[in-house]
Amino acid sequence: MAVPFGANARPIILGIVGDSAAGKTTLSHGIAQILGPERVSVLCTDDYHRYNRRQRKELGITPLNPACNYLDIMGQHLRLLRAGEAILKPHYDHTRGDFGPPQYIVPRPFLIVEGLLGMYRQEMRDIYSVSVFLGPPEELRRRWKIRRDTVRRGYSEAEVLRELEVREHDSAAYIRPQQEHADIVVSFYPGAASRDGWDGDAHLNVRLTLHGTLPHPDLSEVIAEDRSNCVRATLGRERGRAVEYLEIDGSIPDDAASALESCILGHLDACGAAPLADLGLYSGPLVQHSHPLALTQLLLAYHLLRAKRREEIEI
User: If pLDDT is split at 50, 70 and 90, which confidence band does 152 have?
Assistant: First the structure.
């Protein structure tokens, strides 16, 4: 049963942008678990494609191209949801490569918006309380995309490789530049345990680029006490702006990961968080757990809950 949400109440909105198979859905699923699935609505911006798979092939256009999407309708729907209004949105079925019946979306206390072009326009960026860009190394993303599209979407490996080649221009032109507008850039990458053959996603490291557009929690004490050397925080500059880099190794021991998880949870009010074992899950050949993924999900949930508290105080 959904938690009652007052009429015209304004949801806190998280925008997650990244290229195809960058891990957007995996990341957002764990965040919803922390916040409570009944308190979260999810909107996929892929639903606003202008053409189906057959039409795109005939026209020679990729879904990464803004001209292949109804960005104006997407922006309008985001404004309505932010105002607490329900919407009737289109629905794109990736398995069939075609559109299905429209879906009725009612805003809940939290809204996760995930997709390819969610930060392409300023009007979209203005909607988000927290904005995230997922940018794994291209070789890793390609491996994820081949695995996903062959297993779940009915493509052959040759078809996926050909599609990746066709899409590269639009990825560089329209998708990757959006990271400049993110509060946090999340980059999973292979550590020493997963480099050979690019296997073992459970051992992927994560590098979080934290921009000063958000007040990040102070993790310095628990990092200083970490004897595993699997958690590191450094300062830097990107495009003239000061940033903090938080790196977490995939080989982090359970006790060190638990200490960091507890530190982040200590910054949160009671939020109905799921047991930590339910976080950091991803699907490969098997469902597995990743400490860096779980910690990333907790950090993003922290920012959403902080934004919720701040808005309640202002009201």
Answer: confident
Who's near 145: CB < 8 A, 6+ residues apart? 20, 21, 160, 164
Note the pLDDT tens digit of each residue in 277-296. Answer: 455 555 555 556 789 999 99
Write out the two tokens for 89: 């949105």
Residue 273, pLDDT above cutoff 90:
no
C-alpha distances (whole Å) from 129 to each of 110, 159, 314 are 10, 38, 14
Q: Which residues lie below 8 Å from residue 217, measured CB to CB, with a gap of 6+?
A: 263, 264, 267, 299, 302
Domain covering 12-314 in this structure, CATH number: 3.40.50.300
Where exactly are the structural domains of the chain? 12-314
Please list, in sequence order, all residues whose beta carbon lies within 8 angstroms of the beta carbon of residue 285, skipping any fewer than 6 positions away.
Answer: none
Q: At what angle do helices 291-314 and 24-35 cross, to 10 degrees?
A: 60
pLDDT at 271 over 90: no
Strand-strand pairing, 287-289 and 281-283? antiparallel
- CA 185 to chain CA centroid, nearest Å: 10
